[in-house]
Amino acid sequence: MDPRSAYVHIPFCHRRCFYCDFPVVPLGDRADGASSGSVAAYLDLLHREIATSPGGPPLATVYLGGGTPSMLSSVQVAGILQALERRFGLTPGAELSLELDPASFDQARLAGYLAAGINRVSLGGQSFDDGVLLDLGRRHRGADLREAAGWLGLAQRRGDLVSWSLDLIQGLPSQNVAHWDGQLSAALALEPPHLSVYDLSIEPGTVFERRLERGELALPPEDLAADLMDLTWARLTAAGYGHYEVSNYALPGHASRHNRVYWSGAGWWGFGMGATGAPRGRRRAHPRTRAGYEEALAVRAQEPAGAEEGMPFDERLMVGLRCREGVNLERLARQENLKLSQLEGLRQRLAAYERRGLLRIEGPRWRLADPEGLALSNGVLREMLAWWQDVEPLPAPAL
Q1: What pLDDT does 342 receive?
Q2: Residue 334 is part of a domain; what is its CATH number?
């Protein structure tokens, strides 16, 4: 099936945060994306990629991520949406999302984005604590985050913005339950329709990895990290948020349609440096440097058809089990040409999780209990991947 969603990567940032390993291009704290020659040259490549893509049906969701897409002007954002509309079309009521950094926009800039067609915003707050923000390498402070969230709430109440989300990070160095409870209270006071709460992950090549190696990063122990996750679930569900994916909570009607595309295993287009797409169920990742991206566009026409990889079985398991509704494992097994009897080995391997009520097997559907099972999703997935390494799919039937 042809994709009806597109991710567009805007790699520019003022600076790289200390935990970030995304493909980004820092331009400096004083940089203005609207007047930057580097940004203009990149957008030329991006427009070329969109214009020469295979095309397909109208898009129902578009997500402009980064990086810091709010370094672009509203005219530049409008140009990207117009390019997608020319090539694909946009369905009526399409979800058009833009990531915003609290230190990179004001009310006038927000109004320009909304006039350009953006109707959903993801606000990268991460924390309300000024000391924590400094330790993360962020430019904004708690007051900036509260002010930016206030503008978004006002735009939503006026009907100019359909929805918005607030990002937070839990499990930060030296964090305790009382501190995190205060962060959740600050977030709930802003009444965001959607909250994404991510566990801190130490990625290779980051400042945080180097600090950890030098013994300068005091990460919470595992039992405290679990307590923080339990507190998140308790506070947010009590406030009316549905826990529809491991890291995501939404008020009724405000779950991200675009993110659900990823977790459902459906295809999407990926445009831009470092972007990953899965058109027609096949995964393709762009080079993570500007030079590599430009070279890839130059040779793309010479690539043989079907050069993309299919989405592997273990990844389909991962995205499925991250969601509250779980995954139809029997259907996945048939797609992978497995015997259903081979799933018994997996069930035996996960018997302890099932006995504890953390894993629910309901006919063909396997899902993790909320919140305890979802909190242990990484452990369950490790067991599944170990099982998968020992399983040999049956030969494909002869045609």
Answers
A1: 78
A2: 1.10.10
